[in-house]
User: Fold FNDC9 protein from Phaetusa simplex.
Amino acid sequence: MGITVQNITGSTAMVIWPKMASCADTFYSVMYHPNWNSMLSSYSRKSFQKEERVPTTRSSFVVENLTPLTTYIVCVTCQSANPSSDQCRVFNTLERDPASASNTKKELALGIWLTSSILLLIIAAILLYGCLHILCRRRREHLQGRNGTSEQDHRKAWTKNTAQDSEELGRQSQPMQDTEEKHPGGIQLATIIENPSVCKEPVMPTSKSRERVPTTGQCSAIN
Assistant:
């Protein structure tokens, strides 16, 4: 068939083949396998590790993800045919490309950086949540303390007012007690209302009750 392998690197290779006029299928099968010495001489399709399907309008394919410094066998057939020896080629991959190694290192560094960033974000979120929780709890405790202090102040003010009222009532009741002590009999002073039209006779005060009592007859009302 005239199959050729070109542009071989440590991880890729381009396979080129002529178009097959006798192939009536809709695609070609590109099969490849590492370690040619382990392949069976029968070239069975099941013996190949990878198989790619390429439309019949194309006559080349780039094989990727190869292992550096490895011997490969590649075969190109029609869709349903088993490969023969004239449809296969053996080639060796090169060492790892410096650019590929650099890209691998960059990808590894990028992955580590992304992982570290995610972990840092998670830790920062946990710390922020903890700080907010502590602040809210302290603020709630502070508000509860202020409410308790206000209630205590209110109780103290109410007690003080009650004591002042009791003291004032005690002061007001003291003259009444003094009056009762001066008059043990509980005699109340009577108010004499004179009626000039009924009685005009002079009255003589008594020495005990100090009330104005008429000498003859009753001419006033005792309240």
In short: DSSP finds one helix and nine strands in the chain. The radius of gyration is 61 Å. Residues 98-182 form the longest helix (85 residues).
